[in-house]
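Narrative progress, year one. The postdoctoral researcher (J.K.) led the effort to move from monomer predictions toward full complexes, under supervision of the PI. The following entry was the first complex the group processed end to end, covering 1108 residues in total.
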Amino acid sequence: MVKVESKGYRKKRILFFLKRLKINWKIYYKSGYGKAGFYLVLFFVIMTALSPVLTFHDPMNFIAPLEDTYTAQQELNMLLPSYLNYNSTQLSTTSVNSEGSYLLFTNSANGTIYGIGLGATSETPKGKIINLAYLNIPSSYNVFPVSVYPISKYLSFISSGYSTITYTTYFVIGATNGANSLIYTGEVWWTGATWGSGNPYVKHIIKIEIPGKLIYSPELNSIQLSESPPAWIPFDNMSASSMGFMPGMIIALTEENGEYNLSSYYLNSNTLAWYNILPNNGIPTTPVPYGVFFSPGKVYGSEIIIGRGTHIMAYSLLSGKLRWNTNLPYPINLKATPTIPLDYQLSPNSYNMVFIALNNIYGVYGVYLSNGTLVDIYNVGAPITSMTSSLGSSGFPSYLLVTTNNEIFSIGGIGKLKGTFTIASSDGLLTYTPLYIADKTAAIFNTNLGLMLEIQAQLGKDSAEWSVHFNSNYLPIKQPILFRNAETGRSSIAFITNNGYFNMYASSGVDKNPIPPTLNSPSGNIYLLGTNSDGNDLWSQLIASFPTDWLFGITVAIGVMVIAVLAAMLVGYSGPIVSSVVETVSLVVYLIPGLALLIALASVLGASMLNIVIILTIIGWPFTTLTLIGVVRQIKARTFVEAAKVSGSSTWQILYKHMMPNMTPLLVYFLALAIGGAVAGVATLQFLGLAPLTIPTWGGMLQPIFNNFFLAAQAPWWVLPPSIILTAFIMAFIFISRGLDEVVNPRIRRQ
Amino acid sequence: MLIIILRYIFTSKFFSKFYIQNLPLGKWVKMNIYLLARKIIQAIVLAVLMAVIVYVVYRLMPGNPAELFLFGAKHYGATPAQMNALLSELGLSGGKWNLMNFLIYMKDMFTFNFGYDYIRGEPVWEIINYAMPYTLLLLGTALALSFIIGIPLGIVTSWVRGKKSEAFSITISLILNSIPFFILGVILYIYLVSFYHIFPVTSGFSTYYLYHFSWPNFEFVLYKMALPLITLVVIEAAAHVLTMRAAMVSTLGEDYILTARAKGVSEAGIMFRHAARNAMIPVTTRMALEFAGLTGGAVIVEILFSWPGIGHILYYATLMEDYALSEGALFLISLITIIAYVLIDYIHAWLDPRIRV
C-alpha cells in the first residue's frame, strides 16, 4: 500500500471540508432550535469571559458583614407624659416567670409608681401607663428610682399536705432629705385570676424610716432580672431563718456623720435586722447579694458583698456578721460595680468569685467568695468604666466583659484575653453597664454619644451584629435594661431618653439572612441576587459558576467522547464477538441507574473534583457508545466501505478516512448532549452533598436547600436564578443537538 | 406484567402441548419461543455483568469493609477470634479481590442473600424487601402515566405539524426535558408545599396502605405519592412527547401512509391506526433505554421527598457507609432496571413483526 497524497489534493480536501461545513452551518442555522441554542451558548460563553469582571465579591469566602445581616428592630418609641418627670426616673423590671414580665416600672419625683404596659393582655396594652401607687413623699425628699424584684412566697398547708410557691413582684423605693431617709416597699397584684391578667394594683405598702442619708437605692436580697426567682424567700417571716428559709431582706446603705452604715430590714415589716459601720474610707460600692438562689440547706452561705476604699467585705445576710475582709492593693473602682455571675448564685462552689476593678492599676481582680482570697485576673491598661459577665455555669465565666472608655475586653480566664473591640472615639465613651444576653452569647453596649451596639461576646473582628445611633436630642439616655418581652417571647431592651421618650428594641435585632436582592445595604455592598443563609453573595457565586460549570461539562464530555469513539472504533475494527461484548458492557453500564451508581461511586471513591469527573465519565459514556456503535455498523455495511476494502485499504485507513468523517456531525451532536448531561450530573451530586463544595457551581449553590427545604420557600431569589441558569445551560445544548439533528438526519430536513 | 406472564404461559412449549395446541397459534408460538429464549439469555448475561460491576464498584473503596461492619452497633467490642469468624462469614478472609470470594458473592447476590446491615445488624434483604413495593409502585405508576400522557400528546403534536401549537409543544417539552429532576422537585416543593400547602411535606407512609386496598387508602397513597410522581411524570412524559412526535413524523413520510390517504382513510384513522402503531416501535426501543433514566430520576425523587423506596435506602446507606445495604440496594435497583429493559424490549419485538421473524 503506497500512500501518496499530493498537496493539491489535500488543499482540495480542506476546501471541500470547509464548503461542507458552510452548508451544514446554513442548515443548522435555519432551524429555529439550532439558532436559539447557538445564541444561548453564545450567552454562556460571553458570561464566562466576563465572569472575572462581574464577580463583585469572592464567591466562596465573602460573607456579608454583620451590619448588613443584622439590623436593630425598634419595638416601641413613645413620648412619656410630663407628669412622669422622666429626669429623675429609671425603668425597672423583673422576669417573674417564663411568660415574661408584664409591666415595666418607673416612678415620678413624688414617688408615684407607674407601670408601662407591654401588651401581654388587653388591660395592659403596649405603652399604656398605669398609675399603681401614690406614696406622697414630701417634696424636700429626693426620690430614688423604683426597683422591682421577684420574690416567692412559700405557702405550706401542713394539714392538707399541700404546699405551693407563688411569685410576687415587690417594689422598693428609697427617698432621702440628707438627714433622714424613707424606704417604701409594696407588692404588685393583679385583679385577674392568674398573674399578669386583669389590672395591676399595689397593696401592702410599708414605710420604713431610717436615720442618715441613703447613698444608693435600697435593694432586696433577690436578683432583679432572674428568670426563676429565688424560691426560698418567704413572704414575711422574721423567724424564717430558724425554719431553714431565707427571709426577705432590704439592704440599705446610709451615711450619717461621715460614717457609712450597712443596714438590713426584714421585708414586710419595719424591723431592723442588723447594721454595721463599714471600715476604711471613701464611698462604698453598691452592696451585692450573693447566694440568693441557694437552696434552704445552704441559707447561711448567703452574703452581702460590699467594697469600700482598699477593702472588700462579705457580711452574712442573716446576722450581719463579717465573714471576711480582704485588703486590696488599690482603692476599689466605683464605676464598675462588683460583678457575680448569675450561676454563682445557685450553689456555693469553690471557684465562685466576685469580680472587681481597682483604680490606679486598671486591673480586674477576682475575690473568692468562700474565703476572700484575691486573684489578679487581667490588666486592661486603662480606667475601667463598667463590667458584666456571662452566666459562669462551669467555673470561670466564658465571657467577662470589661469596658474602658472606648475599648471592650472579653476575658475568658485568669490572664486569658479572648478578644477586644474598639469603638471609634467619635462614637463616645462606654459609660453604661453592658447588658449580657445569655441565649445569644452577645452583649449590648451603649455610649454616651448615643451608639447602641450588640456585639458577640467573643468580640474580635466582625463580631458586631447591629447598632443604632440616637439623635443628640435623645441624649443622654438612662441605663438601658434587658427584660423578657412577653409579647415576642424574646429579650428586649428598654430605656428612657433625656427628652422623655420611652424606647424599646428587640435584643436580637433582626437576622436578615438570607438577604433579599438589594442595591443599597448598610455597608454599601451591592447584593444583586441577595445572599444565601451563610451570607455569601449569590450573584458572585452565580457568575463565578459559569467557568467552573463549563470546565466540568467540557472535561467530562471530552472524556465521554474519547471513550465512545474508541469503543465505536473497536466495534468497527473487530469482528462480531468483540463488538457484541463492547455493546453488552456499555448496555449494562447504561442500565445501572446512573444516579444510583453516581451516589455509590461518589461515596466509595471519595468526593474530590477529579473523582467527580471520572465518575461522570463512567456514567456518561455508554449512551453515546451505544448510538455510535449502531452508526458504525450502518456505515460498515455501506458500499463505499466495501469498495475501500476491496481496493486494499487497511482497516485503520477505513476507520480514519471513511468512518470518522461520517461520524463527525454525530460526534458534535453527542458532545453537545454530553456537556449538558455532565453539568446536570455535577449539579445533582453537589445538591445531594456528595461532591466537594469548594468551588462555585450552580448545583453547589443549591446544596443548603437540600438540608432545609424551608429555606427555599423563604428565599425564592436564592433558588430560582441557579435553577434557571442551570436549566438554560442544559437546554442550550439540547437545542443545539436538535439543530444538529437536522444536519445529521437529512430525512427530518426533508419533511 | 400480567400480559407478559400470560404470554409466557401461552408461548412456552410446556403449556402449549397441553391446551394451546388446538388454537391457531402454532407458527406464532414457535417464533416467540426463540425470541423469549434469547431475551432470557440476554437478561442473565446483563444481570451477571451488572453484578460484576457492582462487585468492582464496592471493592474500589479504600480500607476494609469488614472493619466498618465490625464497628457497627451489633458487633461492637468483638474479640479477635470473633472478628476472624465474622470475616470468613462475610467472605472477606481472602482479601478483596479473591476469586473464591467473588464466586461466593455471585452466589449470594443471585440468591438475594445480601448479608447483614452494618449499622443495626438486620438482614439487608428484609430492609430492601420493605422498600421494594414503594419503588415499584412509584416507578410503575410513573412509567404508565408518562406513557399515557406523553404518547397521545406526541401524536397530537405531530398532527398539528407546521402550526404554532406544534412549535409550542416541542419547545415546552424540550424545556421540561432539560430540567434536572432535583430542580423540578425543589421548585414544585416551594410552590405546591410551602406556598400553597397542597401536598404533604414528606411522602412516607406505612405499607398498611399498600396492602389493604380501599378507596380512602388509595386516596391517601395518591396524596402522598403525588409530588414525587408529578416530578417524574412531567420530565418523562416530555421525553415521550418528543420521541413519539419524531417517530410519527418519520412514519407519516412513509409510502403506505400515502397509500392509505389515497384510499380515502380518514385523518384520524391514518393517525391512530396506521401511523401511531408503527411509530410505537421506535418509541418502545427508546422507552427501554429511557427506563434507566427514569429509575435514576426515581432515586433522586425518593431522596428529595423522603419516599421510603430503594433509592432512599441506597442514599442513606451510602452516606452512613453501610456498604452491605448500599450494595444490595444498588444491585436490586439495577436488576429491576435490567428486567424492565428486557421486558420492554420483548414487547418491542412482539410489536414489530420484522424483529419477530
